[in-house]
């Protein structure tokens, strides 16, 4: 169970849900939780959300209101308890080794796990750059939170209203070999990044898929991958959500 402590409403239908974990759990960047949005069977399925931050027992999720579940979560009251399963899934930390430069590229709610990862890398003294892209300035919804943490960030807006004008993919062309890219955001963004980079650059993606159980049994979240020349379906919840972008079958996903 998680106990809600605050709902911070941001711009563009985004909000940050802050809660207290009532027991001690190790939560790593990239992990997600399945949250129960309603109080009865409607909606029946718990909803997956990446962890945006953890401070002691406090946990934060950046949520975009899109349907029934995300609307119900936004209406939760302070001190209300919600059923939560987690932490689930693998972590970015499994893929970070050596001294390579690390580029974290995010947009939309995909910025949430990258915020957590940026803070972790900064605290470890690692060389990282966060690239945060949106259509316009008003959609850079966690810009104040990034600035408060003094993270190493480059902003991109499509209309040029803040930061560099253009798409985050414009930046990718400059990334040299001996770097690691981690991307999280719209599927096309991640697919285009993979298409633009040299095959020697490691690229990991955090994927989304509609989930039912969240822990590997229902097979509702599978995605097509290519492993040693064979097509293989893998579970986003259990085998991911973070995958090597080179094994995703982007044409079928
Ligand atoms: C591992 C993982 C991490 C996620 N992290 C976040 C996060 O940090 N913040 C956040 O806001 N959202 C995140 N999501 C997406 C989030 O789970 C969905 O937006 C949410 O479940 C929608 O619930 P709903 O009841 O409001 O919408 P519904 O009423 O269920 O659906 C509304 C519409 O959204 C579509 N939809 C539902 N789920 C998804 C999905 N996973 N991907 C694309 N379209 C979907 C539906 O097909 C429908 O058209 C994550 C998903 C996964 C799998
Ligand atoms: S959501 Fe059930 S196997 Fe992934």
Assembly type of the chains comes to: single chain
Mean pLDDT: 95
Radius of gyration: 18 Å
User: What's the total helix number?
Assistant: 5
Strand content bin: 25-35%
For the biggest sheet, the summary is: 7 strands, mixed
Tell the overall outline: globular
Bound molecules: flavin-adenine dinucleotide, FE2/S2 (inorganic) cluster
Strand order of the largest sheet: 12-11-10-9-13-14-17
Total number of strands: 17
Can you give a write-up of this model?
The strands form 4 sheets. The chain has a 7-stranded mixed beta sheet, with helices on both faces. The chain has helices at 68-74, 111-124, 143-148, 168-172, 187-196; strands spanning 2-9, 14-21, 32-35, 47-50, 53-55, 58-64, 81-82, 84-88, 101-107, 128-134, 153-157, 164-165, 179-184, 202-206, 222-227, 230-235, 242-244. With 253 residues, it is α/β, with parallel strands linked by helices. The chain binds flavin-adenine dinucleotide (FAD) and FE2/S2 (inorganic) cluster. Residues 211-214, 216-221, 235, 237 line the site of FE2/S2 (inorganic) cluster.
Name the features.
17% helix, alpha/beta, globular, 35% strand, 17 strands, 253 residues, single chain, 5 helices, binds FE2/S2 (inorganic) cluster, seven-stranded mixed beta sheet, binds flavin-adenine dinucleotide, five-stranded antiparallel beta sheet
């Amino acid at each position: 169970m998680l106990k809600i402590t605050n709902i911070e409403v941001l711009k563009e239908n985004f909000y940050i849900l802050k809660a207290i974990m009532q027991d001690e759990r190790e939560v790593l960047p990239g992990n997600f939780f399945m949250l129960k949005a309603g109080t009865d069977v409607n909606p029946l399925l718990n909803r997956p959300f990446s962890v945006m931050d953890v401070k002691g027992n406090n946990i934060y999720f950046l949520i975009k209101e899109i349907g029934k579940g995300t609307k119900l979560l936004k209406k939760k009251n302070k001190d209300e308890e919600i059923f939560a399963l987690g932490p689930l899934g693998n972590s970015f930390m499994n893929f970070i080794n050596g001294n390579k430069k690390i580029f974290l590229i995010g947009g939309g709610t995909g910025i949430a796990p990258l915020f957590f990862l940026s803070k972790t890398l900064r605290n470890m003294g690692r060389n990282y750059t966060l690239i945060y892209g949106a259509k316009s300035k008003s959609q850079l919804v966690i810009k104040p939170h990034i600035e408060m943490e003094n993270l190493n960030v480059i902003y991109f807006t499509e209309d040029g209203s803040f930061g560099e004008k253009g798409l985050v993919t414009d930046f990718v062309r400059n990334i040299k070999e001996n770097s690691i890219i981690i991307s999280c955001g719209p599927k096309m963004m991640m697919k285009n990044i993979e298409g633009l980079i040299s095959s020697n650059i490691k690229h990991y993606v955090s994927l989304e898929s509609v989930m039912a159980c969240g822990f590997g049994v229902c097979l509702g979240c599978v995605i097509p991958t290519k492993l040693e020349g064979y097509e293989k379906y893998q579970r986003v919840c259990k085998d991911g959500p973070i995958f090597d972008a080179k094994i995703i079958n982007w044409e079928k996903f």
